[in-house]
Structures are given as structure tokens and as C-alpha cells.
Design goal:
Elements: E1 32-40, E2 42-43, E3 55-56, H1 63-78, H2 81-84, E4 86-95, H3 103-116, E5 119-129, H4 137-145, E6 150-156, H5 160-165, H6 172-184, E7 190-196, H7 203-215, E8 220-225, H8 233-240, H9 248-263, E9 268-269, E10 274-276, H10 284-290, E11 295-298, E12 303-306, E13 309-313, H11 317-325, E14 331-336, H12 339-352, E15 355-357, H13 358-365, H14 369-372, H15 374-382, E16 386-388, E17 392-395, H16 403-408, H17 413-416
Parallel strand pairs: 1-4, 1-11, 2-3, 4-5, 5-6, 6-7, 7-8
Antiparallel strand pairs: 8-10, 9-10, 12-13, 13-14, 15-17, 16-17
Helix pairs in contact: 1-3, 1-11, 7-9
The structure holds iron/sulfur cluster.
Amino acid sequence: MELSLKRETFVTNYPPYSVMQTKHVASIWERRPVNVYVHLPFCPKRCHYCYYRVEEYKGKDPISKYVEHLLKEIELLAERPEIQTCSMQTLYFGGGTPTMLSAEQFVQIVEALERVFPKTQDFQFNVEVRPGAEATQEKLNTLKQLGVHRISLGVQSMNDTILTANGRNHKTETFYKTYDRIRNAGFDWVNCDLMSGMLHETDDTWKYSLELLKECNPENITIYKMEVFFNTKLFSAVRRNPEILISHETEAKHFRGARNFLESNGYFMCNNATFATDHKYIDRHRQNVQYGGDMVGIGLSSHSYFQGNMYQNTSDMKEYQEVVAGGKLPISRSYKLSQKDQITRHVVMSLKNLKVSRSQFVDNFGLDLTQVFPDEVRRLTSEGFAHLDNEHLSIDPEYYDFADDVARLFYPMELHNDMLAHISRKE
Ligand code: SF4
């Protein structure tokens, strides 16, 4: 078509004013949905592999003082104009052991959060629970009344020898009692965490744990790999004797065995670690965060991702309380993501959910995934690790076990150091 330039009319606006409609007025003031995480850093005893910022509860009540400061931190957050335009899509109480709090303390925190963040219609609320006497029936009933949807129970193993060898402070019998109280409180959605790669795990103990857990019919089972972090008792033990660890190959075999077992018993894999019995049992806190949604962390050492910034609260309890008491948010470090970081983060985190949506990628960044990452997409698809169609880049189910390794391929070259070496093809 021949271009004709006639100076017809001025452009007054784009898009033209005619696209505006009365029905869209309400959306001008729509709040930005965020996922809220609250860290409750107390445990009766530290597990040998634990690298979280937790304090052992030592008789004297440190929790009331902590909750007091947590409530103050929520008030301080509420003063931020950026927070005043947010709504709460998910709420997650993690730790630590959240059930070390009293029922009244749970109520206080939830009410304080609800004053700051209106809940979205599809709001979802998760609480982590440790098998233990502190998860009383009264507390679990209160959690149910507070609207908690999902309880996540740290089971780790159904073998007492393994639990003790890895420094867990509960027995299998404790798990059964806690699980019964959770169901008695009326919860119809329970996640049970198992841990692969624990000390003394054998093919038989692993299989037995899975079978016992499956008999309880939790709606989710999540399998985390035990990793050795430098600030743990496990790290010192491994330094003295590296032979105590089971090999990566055995751990990978156990994960694959668990996956086969769960998939033949009505579960499907919904992200890099979690199995569900139904699509209605998808943990949207984790899913939203993994798809790059904003997360506001509250409490000691909590992490946040908000409007393109990653930041973390101080991990020092004294400093946390002093800063909050002084009227400041206790954020100790942060990083502003560049556009390139945000794009990479989106793909990396989405792949932990096993696929990247191409339309969402275009909506967020204005380009197709294949334009930004042509080499990575070509390599993954040509080697069969992933498939590309009009909707998604999806990890091949054969390689779901290696979702994190596939995600790391999108790291910038200086970070990923030939990560392909970590993806083992199953023969
Ligand atoms: S229960 Fe969880 S948070 Fe507490 S010490 Fe053990 S691993 Fe750490």
C-alpha cells in the first residue's frame, strides 16, 4: 500500500477515547494483589539440617515480645502508600513452628493483617504445623475459624530411627495424633512434607514411609531434598565424615520411585516438588510467588519481592525488635531487579511450576519467549527436555524431577556455569 501523507487530523490520544466504557471505571482503583508471608521463628529444638532463622524455645516466653513487634511491623507497613493500594491474595504462616503461638496470638496477627490488606475473593490461607503437642485441638479449631484453608505438616519421615538421626523432635506416633487433630478440626486440605536424602534412609525405609503416609490420604504430598547448608549441625557432621550422606543418585532414585508410586495412586505432580490429588488442591501462595507475583514478608529474616525489588528483613532478633520499636521497617538488604533480571526471574520461577505461559510472557514483557531466549528454547526442545506449543514452554514430564536444573539454564551465562551437566537423562 502506498503511504499517503495528507495532514488529515492531529492525533489527540492513543488508544482513541472511544475505547473507554463506564463498566471499566471500578477497575481504576483496583488494588494490587499480593501474597503475604509471616515468619514465626520458634521451634522446640533445632533439626540437624535446619538452616532457617529459628530460635529454640527455652522456657522463658520470647514469643509474646516477638508478636508485639510483629504487630508493630504490620502497623508500620500500613503507613506505606504502596501497601495501602494492595489486597491480600494469599497468606502463609511459616517458620519455625507457627503453632508455638497461642490461639489468641494467631487471632491478633490475622486481625491486624486484615485491617491492612482487604482479602481478594479467591483468598487462600496456609499455616505450617509441626507434629507435636503444641498443635492442640483448641489451636487447630481456632485456625479453622480464622479461615485457614490448608495445613502443611512437616512429617519428613515415618521412621523413628531416621527422625532421631536427623534431629527431628517428633516421632511417628506424634504425627498420627497431630494429623487426627487436624482432621477433627475440620480441615479437608492437608499437605504432608517428606524429605528425601535424609541420613540412614534406605530403599526400604523410603518406600515404607511413602506407603504409610499415602494410607492417611493427604490431599498434597511435597518432597523436599535435604540439603547441607553451612550453618547447620549436619554440615559439621558431614565435614567430619562425608560418608554419612546418601548419594545424589540414590536420592534421585528415591524421588523418582516416590513419583511413580504417587502417580499410580491418584496423585499428579503440580510443581517441582508437590503432588496433589485434585486441581482444587493447588497451593496458590507458592504458585503465585513462583509465577513472579509480589510477596510481602513480615517478621524476622523474612524475604519479600515487591514491585521489582527483592528485600529481606534483618535476621538479628535484637536488631529486629529495636528497629521496629524505633518506628522503622526492619529491612536490612535489598536489590532492584533490572528489566533483564525480571524477565529471567519470570522464566526461572515459572519453570518451577513446570511451564512458562507464552501469552503471560508477552503481556508482561511485550515480546515472545522465543525472541528473548531463542538459544535456550531451541536447546531444551531439540534435546527433548521441554516442548513448545502456542500456549506454553512445558518441561517434558520425564524431566519434571529436574525442573530446577532446567530453570537454571536460563540464568545469565556468568551464573549458570554449564548447568546442562546437572541434568541427567534417565536411561
Ligand atoms: S521444625 Fe523446621 S524450622 Fe524448626 S528446626 Fe526443624 S527444620 Fe527448622
